[in-house]
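Task 17 of the worksheet. Students: predict the tertiary structure of the chain below and write it out as structure tokens. Keep your answer in the requested format; marks are given for formatting as well as content.
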Amino acid sequence: MGEALARNGSAGLDVHPGPATGLAGTVGNRLEGASHFERVRLPDGWADVLRDLGVDDRAAMLIAERARANRTGFHAELLASGRVREDALFAAVAKTLGLRFLQHVPAERLVIDESQAITALRGMRRNAIATLRGGNGTPIFVLAPQDLNLASLRTRLHATPGLARRLAMTSPTALRTALLARAGPALAREASLGLFGRAPDLSARFVTNPWQAFATGLFLAGAPVLLYVAPKATVLAASAMLTLLFLGCVGLRLLAGLRHHPVRPAPDLPPHGTALPVYSVLIALHREAEVVPDLLAALGRIDWPRSRLEVKLVCEADDAETLAALERHALRSWVEVVRVPPGEPRTKPKALNFALPTCTGDIVALYDAEDRPHPQQLRAAWHALRTGGEDLACVQAPLQIANAAFGVLPFMFRIEFAAQFRGLLPWLAGHDLLIPLGGTSNHFRRAALEEVGGWDPHNVTEDADLGVRLARFGYRVGVIDPPTLEDAPETFPIWFRQRTRWFKGFLQTWLVHMRTPGRLYRELGPGSFTIFHLMIGGVVASALLHPLLLVTMLGLVFRLVVEGGLPRHEAIVLGLATMNVLGGYGAQLLLSWSSLDPAERPGFWKAALLTPAYWMMLSAVGYHALWELARNPHHWAKTPHRRYRRQALPSSDNSAGVPLLARLRRHLPATSAPEQTILSSSLPMTESSRPA
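Model answer:
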């Protein structure tokens, strides 16, 4: 019997999703959040359960209406409403069915090994049955239905005498907790070493392979020799090679900056009432106690049926401060805290790899702790993935800086992010070229994410690496419009640490994928192969070489003024250096200017004046990243975050904030009506943290 139940999953007991049958009662009152009168009926068999739970008739009718509108199960909407606790609901269901209820599932009694426990976690939405060793050696089959047809289940139990004695019921959370306890060690190993074990050539666990180490040593030893033996030829050859690199970077930004930016209408989102998939949202938190209330409020604004949404707050098990901050909130049933066992490497991608098998959604979204995503972003992402073809593995939402008025660094961040997410990435997506992902607001097809190996736990810019790996596997990355607001670092030390991690990760990513250049070229094709070098290696190379070019240009200009002329080879070097420096500044500024809304452009002259100094700061970051790569390649430099400052922006730079809010409203479809998707009682993430 156990094998049959396991093979057929919950379907053997008819607890899979399906329309409710057997009707008992109607309602003709105007329903909360509805714009018209509806007649709804409760599914059969729920009267006793609702009575035990203290749910009155009107509340039951509202929940039944939500189930009808969202095309979900009645019990899923009952849980999502926040009116009952999960354990109380399943205890009441067990009572009415005459089954034992297990408040907790003892992990040590599960008849399952580590790998089977991981498989069971991945498939809990389809197979919610586990086998437990009974006290007398007789197996007990523990049922934790994700969707429940109560009348059909009762009929099946009555038709199979003796089945109830071998069944027990528990809540999905209790069963998932037991499976996590059993699978924990294996999950931790897989999270840390899974990619390396399956594809070591795609893992950043080792910085270089033998031939790369040999080539680096040969360059470091050979360059001084060449400069001594043939200084003029060496300098000219180096200048020509650097010019090719800079011209590529400049050309890419000119192409993106000069493209036409049409005003795109709001996406044609699927109407409310359309059957939506389960959406899993992952947020990795580490020492983020201060921003927990803002995070919960921001996620509470997401317009997606709570019965089809699961949020995983991923924390290190020894991060007592963040865990305590989360425990101060009464989290809804669709929000779960996933505790990652301590262990190296201590990186965000390792934590995400650990949590991914606990997700049951076909689409996985990734956010950071400080993010405030647009309410319609999930719907826009799903629409893009649904209509974009199976090779569209991920869509990237634009990141926008909300605190640009609070310092020079956030101001420059806003300029950079506008160029990157509103200018460059849409151009790349429009030409089906490789897109290095941003570290947040990514929306993945889960199947594609798992196929390419998930995140590399040893790469400190796992986002850029994952974008390259998706392209190597033949997948595309697209972009959507609804943005995510986040705050940029406001102090130099925090900015410097963050940028060092980014540049170190770019170097890791370039070295990893250049272990087999010929294979990389074949898998990416010439266009994406070029983009890989310009956007991954070229970013760091430009930063490293910028001071050399600037010093060379200024030094030769000084000699030209003092001496009245230059030798021919020095004049050539001066021309190339000047073209590279001024071309780099100009192309970046053009791309930023064209990517900003007209209302955001006042004050842009400050960005132009600050660009040379800002690039010199980036150069310092580049050299520090090289040192970090050699000394501590896998160290994750944590970026601390602070509470979102809601006070009015300074009047001297009010333009930095007002257009941003206007742009957010522009992305919201005129027919948007979140209240038709979710009950008002289930809108917040918690009972104590309400959206502002």
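Marker's comment: The longest helix spans residues 517-563. Residues 1-38, 647-692 have pLDDT under 50 and may be disordered.
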